[in-house]
Amino acid sequence: MHRVLVVDDEPQIVRALVINLRARKYEVDAAYDGASALRLAADRHPDVVILDLGLPDMDGVDVIRGIRGWTRVPILVLSARHSSDEKVEALDAGADDYVTKPFGMDELLARLRAAVRRAEPTPGAESPGTVTTDAFTVDLAAKKVNRSGKDVRLTPTEWHLLEVLVRNAGRLVSQKQLLKEVWGPSYGTETNYLRVYMAQLRRKLETDPAHPRHFVTEPGMGYRFEP
């Protein structure tokens, strides 16, 4: 049984989430402000956190940073903030996913299940060595990609971009994070680089590059690799 910490200052949303989560056999703790959230996270060690950014005592981004100071527990942001800058700020602070209010309960629960699955350790491995999709296989240790029985030639930059996305499989990676990890700390706004290189990866690896299944764009926010 997994434990979920719900953090939101709107009682009706907390109540709806608690009812739906408990009906699906999750254990649930609830907090209505940032200080309580940080205290419950430390005391109860949840398996995933659902966090609203608009809290009465502190910004939700500060809660994310506080939690990230000591744990990698998945954090799913649930917020009415729609601007891409605010979404990117939450992701850069350490959030794993972002759902905008108003939200569909089925979608939220699906993203919650995905976050829990990604957080579960792989038996006998620190990190995945080989990732296989229906179109291609990535061997992280050997730094090779195989498609239809043949090795795919990638440039060093293409490989680095692919590696960051694959190691964060299923997780939304912000544009700023990708730029800094692939091109270096002085980069953060050159999103045209990402568009060019993502198009190249899709052309080389996707079955239908015009309708990518594995390299998904979250407009204004970043990219997600779906195995």
From TrEMBL:
The gene is kdpE. Its main location: cytoplasm. GO terms for biological process: positive regulation of DNA-templated transcription. One of its GO terms (molecular function) is cis-regulatory region sequence-specific DNA binding. It comes from the Bacteria. It is found in: Cytoplasm. This is Transcriptional regulatory protein KdpE. Keywords: Cytoplasm, DNA-binding, Phosphoprotein, Transcription, Transcription regulation, Two-component regulatory system. Residues 3-116 form the Response regulatory domain. Pfam families: Response_reg, Trans_reg_C. Residues 128-227 form the OmpR/PhoB-type domain. GO terms for cellular component: cytosol; protein-DNA complex. PANTHER family: KDP OPERON TRANSCRIPTIONAL REGULATORY PROTEIN KDPE (PTHR48111:SF50), REGULATOR OF RPOS (PTHR48111). The modification 4-aspartylphosphate is found at D52. Residues 128-227 bind DNA. InterPro entries: CheY-like_superfamily, OmpR/PhoB-type_DNA-bd, Sig_transdc_resp-reg_receiver, WalR-like, WH-like_DNA-bd_sf. Member of the two-component regulatory system KdpD/KdpE involved in the regulation of the kdp operon. Upon phosphorylation by KdpD, functions as a transcription regulator by direct binding to promoter regions of target genes to positively regulate their expression.
